[in-house]
Amino acid sequence: MADAGAGLETQGRSEEPESTNAARASPHEQVMESLKKVAQVDHTEDPPPDEALKLFFTARRLAQEDRWGSIAAFPLSSTDLTWVIRAVHFSEDFADCSEEVVLPLRPDESITMARHEDLRRELRVKGLFYALLDADGSVVLYELQPAQLQSFPDQRPLHDPAYVEPKILASMAKEAFEEGGATKDAKKSKGRKRKKDETKT
Prior knowledge:
The chain is an alpha/beta fold. The chain has helices at 2-23, 27-38, 49-63, 113-123, 166-200; strands spanning 40-41, 68-76, 79-90, 97-105, 128-133, 139-144. It has a six-stranded mixed beta sheet with strand order 1-2-3-4-5-6, sandwiched between helices.
């Protein structure tokens, strides 16, 4: 009986350190564990605690939407202190998709247009998504793309006139002018004929 009791006591002691270690996980480790459940972390080292928290809330927000997938977090090559998320973004009809980059930002963080352009060139993308985090962990996504001054004809709305080359416009204007002149000459000849007919009568 004594041996059995000692065995139970030993078994209880062997299980205690494992549960204690789980309870002693730091907040950073807990955030990283949650982050890795919703995104792949493409780096040998973990992001700093502040970056990890921003990445987790942003990745969780993207994972809740059907149009986002293949979410991964990685540091910028220019600085290991700034991490971003790369993910696949589908169009509304799911007919097309593109790889986009999302930069998490706290409300107290700001970014200049010069910095935006630097990031765009570094990441080799046309535009960037910004994830603005609130104090309660909610995330609002903003997309910043360069203005498309001239879109393709089949992509323009009905109120946007199609682009016509200047040469074609000049030719059309010339034809319209000539047709207008011919119409005036025809009206003048008809008017003269009427006057002659009235004189005869």
